[in-house]
Amino acid sequence: MALAEPWTPSSWRSLPALQQPGWPDAAAVDEVRERLRQLPPLVFAGEARALQRALGEAAEGRAFLLQAGDCAESFRQVSAIVIRERLKVLLQMSAVLTYGATLPVVKVGRIAGQFTKPRSAPTELVDGVELPSFRGHAVHSDEATPEARVADPERMVQAYYQAVSTLNLLRAFTKGGFADLTQVHTWNQEFVASSLEGRRYEVIANEIGRALRFMQAIGIDLGDERAIHEVDVWTSHEALLLDYEEPLVRKDSTTGDWYACSAHFLWVGERTRQLGGAHLEFLSGLHNPVGAKVGPTMTPDELVALAERLNPDRLPGRLTLITRLGASRVQELLPPLLRAVREAEIPVVWVCDPMHANGFVTSSGHKTRRLDDILREIEGFFAAHREVGTWPGGVHLEITGEDVTECLGGSEAVLEEQLDTRYESLCDPRLNARQSLDLAFRVAELMRG
Ligand code: PEP
Ligand code: CO
């Protein structure tokens, strides 16, 4: 059987691969894959190992994962400003969580490579016209014409370069002074600062400033403290498009192990996590930390088999299970899953994705989510962990730094009739910066218990 064969970056090819684009020209795909194979890695094995160590802390209850960013990144949104605003809100949320829960926060963006989307249906209706569903900018354009929706392998090369430029700027921002803790006030954007959450954030920012001055006053030399001046923001995306991922797998020269070099962390989505499927096979041989989405149809036995497949050596930080069960069902469905994985003695980071099982379509045709449902799923997630005695290790969110109107609710509530005002997501609705900060305060409260 194929599974008994040794793992290689291409061993997934003998198994069914769901959600792959129908490329019109196989030779053109081969040619692009060869070009990608020649290009330098985006991330290094040593970085993936550092992230795995940080996630190991979250698996063992000593850290918390904040994984957040776009549902689908856009080739049109790679300006410095857009990337800076995305980073600002991540840094703000992280400051609130770190300060509120006094625990390290592992920061992972859905960024610099989140260019493909799985879809529930092969076609979608756009303004009354039936078109092939949008599968992400790494596959085709989002324009609403049949020609634009033809899969074009050249776009995988473009995705690579878009990821390179995003990651380059991210590295500059996080290591070059912008993320310095003494800048904590400047992360509060104008449209956020005036809100309830923005003012609450200012209080924390002032306290962090005081704590830094206090340390200086007693003679601690802050100049040398890397942790004050730089942050690690790791990259992640769904490992969906295997023709893109495979050529970016590289053998680490120091250990001889295989690493995906398209991002630090890859996850398998709810629609492609079949035990006998290509995506699980692909992730199983990588040495990066990896994740899997866990939806409401998952059974405890199947989850243990998945965890065994992705973390047979039982390494803390290797596997993150991202549950997305729905606000109304999380407290019923999660405890048996938590118990089963614990009984199998497989260390995992348990993470709550409160976005993907709480969506609905309004009568005006907008895909949306309510902040209240999102918060309710997070509360249920914490309650289930309290009940079972496991560690709620993090949250996985779709957010943006912009003042968009895609999700409903919040202290300055986005109302249903306002969704049209600024709805920009290419795929799922994202929390805007105010809603994201609001959520961070709620999570910090839950972490304090
Ligand atoms: C996503 O994370 O954007 C996504 C499609 O999630 P899921 O696989 O959980 O549906
Ligand atoms: Co999404």
Structure description:
This protein is 38% helix and 14% strand. The protein is built from 13 helices and 14 strands. Helix 11 packs parallel to helix 12 (371-388). The longest helix is centred in the first third of the chain and has 22 residues, at 80-101. The chain is globular and about 65 Å long. Phosphoenolpyruvate binds at residues 71, 118, 269-271, 293, 324, 356, 428.
Kindly state the percentage of residues in helix: 25-40%
Which outline best applies? Answer: globular
Order of helices and strands: HHEHEEEHHHHEHEEEHEHEHEEEHEH
Largest sheet: 8 strands, parallel, barrel
Radius of gyration: 21 Å
Strand content: 5-15%
Task: Give structural attributes.
alpha/beta, two-stranded antiparallel ribbon, binds cobalt (II) ion, 449 residues, binds phosphoenolpyruvate, 14 strands, eight-stranded parallel β-barrel, globular, 13 helices, single chain
Brief rundown of the structure:
38% of the residues lie in helices and 14% in strands.
Topology:
Elements lengths: L25 H13 L6 H15 L4 E6 L10 H22 L3 E6 L12 E4 L2 E4 L21 H22 L14 H4 L2 H22 L8 H4 L3 E6 L3 H4 L3 E3 L6 E3 L4 E4 L9 H7 L5 E5 L5 H11 L8 E5 L6 H14 L5 E4 L6 E3 L5 E3 L1 H18 L3 E7 L34 H16 L1
Parallel strand pairs: 1-2, 1-14, 2-5, 5-8, 8-9, 9-10, 10-11, 11-14
Antiparallel strand pairs: 3-4, 6-7, 12-13
Helix pairs in contact: 1-4, 3-4, 3-6, 3-13, 10-11, 11-12, 12-13
This protein binds phosphoenolpyruvate and cobalt (II) ion.
